[in-house]
Amino acid sequence: MTAGAASSAPTPFDRARALKNLEDSEDLLQEIARIFLADYRADFTAMRAALAANDAETLFRLAHTLKSSLASFCADTAFNAAAALVKQVRAGKLDADQLALVEALTDELAAALRAEIV
Fold first, then answer.
1. Which of 38, 92, 93, 85 is nearest to 65 (CA)?
2. Model pTM?
3. Which domains does the chain have, with CATH numbers?
4. Which of 30, 51, 69, 83 is found 20 to 30 A from 92 (Cα to Cα)?
């Protein structure tokens, strides 16, 4: 990363922390990134369908799983948004705006993973 890039907006994930959590295994980081990138769009399709159907149980399960995936990449901003979504759904509030925020932040993570890892 260049000095100019370091002063711009924060990156969607913390590669150094993610690697440390994976015992510095670049291969493992690449593998979980590939799996995540292959699956996450379908998960958002299912979350939007659950929201439309007022299916809090499915939305909760999918959002909670996504939150765990985001934690694997130390994607703090997206993780915090997903955690807020999980909390809202648990309280019975199905929030399309929060889901859209989580999706946008996750898309940013996906772009960064494609650019930096896979």
1. 85
2. 0.89
3. 14-116 (1.20.120)
4. 69
